[in-house]
Inverse folding.
C-alpha cells in the first residue's frame, strides 16, 4: 500500500511539474510575441536620412539605381533635368511609379546666377510643368545646378511655390570612379536628418549605392524622401533648405 501511494505522489508531482513548465514556456512565448508587436520594424531605425540623385533621368544608370533602391526597400528623391525628362519620359514615369519623389534640377542645367530673372523663372517653371504633366506629382523643391544661387533666385522660387533644397552630405561622386571612395565619404558625413547628394550618371555611384544603403541601415538609418524628412522638422533642416 505504501509503495502504491508513493507512486501516486510521484506521478502527481510529475503532472504538476509538467503544468508549471507549460505555463512558464507558454507565457514566455506570449510575452515574446507581445514584445515583438510592441516594437515594429520602423523602430529599429532611430535615424532618418534622405538620399537624392541629380541630373537624371539617365538612360544607362537610372534603372540600376531604381533596382538597388527597390532591393533595399529605400525611398529617394530625384532632382531631374527637364531636357532629360523630355528625352526619356518612360524613365521619369518609372521613377514616379516606383514611389520616389521627383523634384526640379532646372530645364537645361545652367548656372542660375548667370541668368536673367525671366530665364530663371522659365528654367524652374518649365521643369515643374513637365513633372506635373508626366507624373502628376506636384514638385515642391528645386536644386540649383552646382549649388549656384543668389537672392533673386530664392525670390523667384518662392513666387513659384518652390523651396530650394541643398544638402548636408556631399561625397563629390561626380568626380569619382572608385565606388569605395564614394561609399566612405557618404558614411563619414551621414547625420540624422541629413541629405545626401549623389548623381544619376555616375557608374561609381551605382556600384556604391547598395553598400551605402545597407551600411547606413546597419547604423540605424531609415531612408525617406525629402518631403518626409522636412515634415520631421529637424533642427538642422536649415543646413539644406532655403
Amino acid at each position: 500500500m505504501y509503495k502504491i501511494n508513493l507512486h501516486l505522489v510521484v506521478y502527481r508531482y510529475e503532472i504538476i511539474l509538467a503544468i508549471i513548465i507549460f505555463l512558464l514556456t507558454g507565457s514566455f512565448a506570449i510575452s515574446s510575441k507581445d514584445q515583438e508587436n510592441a516594437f515594429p520594424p520602423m523602430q529599429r531605425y532611430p535615424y532618418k536620412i534622405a538620399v537624392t540623385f541629380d541630373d537624371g533621368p539617365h538612360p544607362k544608370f537610372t534603372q540600376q539605381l531604381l533596382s538597388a533602391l527597390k532591393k533595399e526597400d529605400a525611398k529617394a528623391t530625384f532632382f531631374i533635368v527637364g531636357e532629360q525628362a523630355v528625352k526619356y519620359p518612360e524613365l521619369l514615369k518609372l521613377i514616379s511609379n516606383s514611389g520616389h519623389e521627383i523634384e526640379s534640377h532646372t530645364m537645361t542645367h545652367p548656372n542660375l546666377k548667370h541668368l536673367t530673372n525671366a530665364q530663371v523663372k522659365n528654367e524652374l517653371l518649365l521643369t515643374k510643368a513637365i513633372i506635373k504633366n508626366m507624373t502628376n506629382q506636384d514638385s515642391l523643391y528645386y536644386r540649383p545646378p552646382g549649388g549656384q544661387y543668389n537672392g533673386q533666385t530664392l525670390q523667384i522660387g518662392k513666387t513659384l511655390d518652390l523651396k530650394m533644397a541643398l544638402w548636408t552630405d556631399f561625397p563629390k561622386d561626380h568626380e569619382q570612379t572608385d565606388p569605395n571612395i564614394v561609399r566612405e565619404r557618404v558614411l563619414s558625413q551621414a547625420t540624422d536628418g541629413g541629405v545626401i547628394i549623389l548623381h544619376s550618371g555616375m557608374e561609381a555611384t551605382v556600384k556604391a549605392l547598395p553598400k551605402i544603403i545597407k551600411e547606413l541601415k546597419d547604423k540605424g538609418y531609415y531612408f525617406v524622401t525629402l518631403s518626409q524628412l522636412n515634415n520631421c522638422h529637424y533642427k538642422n533642416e536649415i543646413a539644406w533648405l532655403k
Q: What stands out?
A: The beta strands are 47-56, 77-80, 101-104, 141-142, 163-164, 194-199, 221-224. The chain is about 50% helix and 15% strand.
